Amino acid sequence: MLSFIELIGAATCKENGVGQAMKLLIEMMSKGCKPNVVTYNVVVKWICNEGRLDEAIRFLNKFPSYGCHPDVISQLSSREACALVKALNVLDMMPKHSCTPNSRSYNPLIEGFCNKKSVVRAIEYLEIMISWGCYPDVVTYSIFKGCPPVLIT
What we know:
Helix content is 66%, strand content 0%. It is an all-alpha fold. The longest helix has 22 residues, at 72-93.
């Protein structure tokens, strides 16, 4: 039988990531091993860490259908994911309402992605920010200073 530790190992493996963890989760269930809320929370965390926030929220909403109910940790993960999704939606709507986003608009979003270790997404929004003629400020640079190291060209 697959253990919780094996699931964590698969999720943290750079080569396999969440996809492998999901396969293990399905295999666990097919062999009669019922995952608990802790197992599901690990999967949600790693989905969020890959920047797949909508998918994380959908997965959280399916907890009851798996016979499992979200706990405090699940709720915190979902709030963080929802906050980023809402920030993305607000940012997308701003130009439609003649409101030009500035660094204060982008910084929380960039910080959210950095906190989720989704630095590539953070850099994407930095590039979008610059393409709108909005340049990074001291806060933006300090956010990236706290991100995991990446090569920025």
